[in-house]
Amino acid sequence: MLVRVLGSAAGGGFPQWNCGCPGCRAVRDGTRPCRPRTQSAIAVSGDHEQWFLVNASPDVRSQIESAGLNPVGGRATPLRAVLLTDAELDHALGLLLLREAESLELHCTPAVREALRDGTGLLPVLEAYCPVEWREVVPGEQVPLGGGLAYRAFDAPTDKRARFGPQRGAGRVVGYRFTDERTGGAVAYLPGAQEITDAVLAQLQDCAAVLVDGTCWCDEEMPRLGLAGKTAREMGHLPMSGPGGSLERLGRLPGRRIYVHVNNTNPVLLEDSPERREVERCGFEVATDGTEVRIQP
Fold it and tell me: How far apart (Å, rounded) are the C-alpha atoms in residues 65 and 224?
């Protein structure tokens, strides 16, 4: 199994077009070591031939090209399906850029489908261009994808107020646990998590690698910078630091621990920052676009 990080930043990317925070300034002017990043998504394959896109960011076209997932001839794309973790625009807007497909296989929960259909109206627009085959994601159900790859979704509970779609109930946000059926090795992808509950932690325990929400360093990050009135948790994201933060909650996991969906305001994007040194001291990685995880046969 091969997991390729297509985009490692949160919504807006890094730098974000309308932001002049210290990180965005540094990546523009080159005054501190940091690298630009596109918006969060990964591609997963069991055989390096059939690929499955997890979240379709607004940067999906350039991400597909950068990862070499484009057709060799004609329109025989190696992309077989799209799996969504939620209905956030930075995870779903790229679906419209895939409208040239002959058909599209879309895996998501009923709650996410409802948000895309009745909330944003994104799904009806996509369906006007190409047939969409919906595959219902049921947390806890093992689903074979092809090429020796299978997934099992798990619920990531949230009480974040949705801008559209269902306000309550399971399935609004999920993570995916991908399994190499030949080796039994597993990799989990959880780019959005308001809390790492014991139930979520149980899904991550024996994974060779966990790619997890790294949106903010601290809960008050955005308010302190004067960029938003909400804390990280109020925006649906567990901060890295502090009591109950992801550094603490995931600190004993045995496999690789890789932060994805990192917001432009997060100081860990600055490679010389004390926050970055602390993350690395704790044994975590900060993903870049192109980071790979391999499960060897």
Answer: 37
Degrees to nearest 5, angle at CA 275 with 186 and 265: 90
Q: Report all structural domains of the chain as residue ranges with CATH numbers, in order of start.
A: 2-290 (3.60.15.10)
> pLDDT, tens digit, for every residue of 249-297?
999 999 999 999 999 999 999 999 999 999 999 999 999 999 999 998 6
Q: Which one has a higher pLDDT value, 173 or 229?
A: 173
Please tell me the distance from the alpha carbon of residue 76 to that of residue 74, in angstroms, as a whole number. 6
pLDDT at 274: 98
Scan for tokens 């809960």, then name that residue: 219
Task: Cite the DSSP H helix spans in the chain.
Answer: 22-29, 60-66, 89-92, 110-114, 122-127, 198-204, 221-225, 246-249, 274-281
Q: Which residues contact 74 (CB under 8 A, 6 or more apart)?
A: none
Task: Round to whole Å and give the CA distance between 118 and 73.
Answer: 37
Q: What is the C-alpha separation between 7 and 37, in angstroms, rounded?
A: 6
Q: What gap in Å lies between CA 146 and CA 77, rounded to an integer?
A: 15
How many residues are present in the chain? 297
For the entire predicted model, the pTM comes to 0.97
